[in-house]
Amino acid sequence: MKYPVHEHGKFSVISLTGEVDLNCSPQAREQILKCLKKNNHLLIDLSAVEYIDSSGVASLVEGFQTARGQQLQFALLGVSKAALQVLQLARLDKVFPIYASIDDVDL
């Protein structure tokens, strides 16, 4: 699965969709790290995610840690109910900056 990236202000925005599981989380991880290699601040749009498993969450955590190490901003956008439940279960909703929409992000 391909995950589109578009630019918005100083941020790259990656839109994850559908099921982010063991089959497609490697592509999500690759796209996240590719954007961070370019020293781009990063927003991950999870509004269209129907399911995310631990491998998908691990890709988000790795991206978050990589961004922090590079002093880049990393946040989640429009987190779907299904994705939010998983993040809350892992208490990661307290770790990741989460915004309802791109309009709420300080660009």
Describe the structure.
The chain is of the alpha/beta class and 107 residues long. The protein has one domain: 2-Layer Sandwich (Transcription Regulator spoIIAA). It contains 3 helices and 5 strands, in the order ββαβαβαβ. Strands 1-2-3-4-5 form a 5-stranded mixed β-sheet. Helix 1 packs parallel to helix 2. The longest helix has 16 residues. It is globular. The model has no long low-confidence stretch (mean pLDDT 95).
Major β-sheet annotation: 5 strands, mixed
Strand tally, please? 5
Distance between the termini: 28 Å
Rg value? 12 Å
| Mean model confidence by pLDDT | 95
CATH topology (fold) name: Transcription Regulator spoIIAA
CATH class assignment = Alpha Beta
What do we call the CATH homologous superfamily?
A: STAS domain
Contiguous low-pLDDT stretches (5 residues minimum) are none
Quick tags:
5-stranded mixed beta sheet; about 110 residues
Please sum up the structure shown.
With 107 residues, the chain is an alpha/beta fold.
